[in-house]
Amino acid sequence: MARRYDSRTTIFSPEGRLYQIEYAMEAISHAGTVLGVLSKDGVVLAAEKKVTGKLLDMSSAKEGGYGGSGEKIFLLNSNVIAGVAGIAADANSLVNYARQASQRHLFMYNEDIPVESLAQRLCDLKQGYTQYGGLRPFGVSLLYAGYDPHYEFQLYHSDPSGNYSGWKATCIGANNGTATSLLKQEYKEDISVEAAIELVLRTMSKTMDSTTLGSEKLEFATLTLDANKKPKAKVYKPSEIDVLLQKHGLGKKDEDTEMSSA
Q1: Which run of H or of E encompasses 202?
Q2: Hey, where are the domains in the chain?
Q3: What is the pLDDT of residues 198-232, one digit of tens each?
Q4: Span 19-50+69-248 CATH architecture
Q5: 126-178: per-residue pLDDT in tens?
Q6: How far apart are CA 214 and CA 219, in angstroms?
Q7: 179 vs 37, 141, 184, 242, CA distance in Å?
Q8: CB of 59 within 8 A of CB of 221?
């Protein structure tokens, strides 16, 4: 009898738990790591890609669009970037919903949607999928890196239950416990965006399942302000990620030369 409580999303167990939501959160804990750090002058997001291979067509990532393969990091609006961990198809559905919500807000109020407002809208949708019968929860968590003129740079996290919270630095996906403990030790209140980039890369190098960091396994994005004090979202292309890794001494060539010299 105890096992039947997970047959529907809307049935509480005697302990007051919704098992399908817990299962969704467990699925996210096995997904590729997504890490975000908030700094005084920007937000940094990095994500571990799971879909890799020599036969994968990366031409669009190298030449077109705003950079990135679009597997883990997405541009939701000119002032909001999202990193996703979990089921990619669910993530695509939520990303499209968020983009439409952002454009509706821009059309109605002639201003970019506040970051928390966008997180709330997605969480309202996700909460509905935990309440109505015949639906399963979205198996995806999101990190929102955004900017608005009132509260400036912000970093939010939302999970399948519809909960969301603001963070200075956080991690979702595989090895999130290790990454969070590293961030607790090294995060500083007045960190600059350059220092945040270095912190994110170092943390990813220690927590990713792969032994080497490279553009084929990593997506990277920053949100800063341009000269006109407008939010400037940058999703790095593979070649730019490799340059960034070399700059911080985490690229492949360093390891290759060490191996050959040994």
Answers
A1: helix 193-207
A2: 19-50+69-248
A3: 999 999 999 887 667 888 889 999 999 999 999 99
A4: 4-Layer Sandwich (3.60)
A5: 999 999 888 899 999 999 999 999 999 999 999 999 999 999 999 999 999 99
A6: 9
A7: 11, 16, 9, 22
A8: no
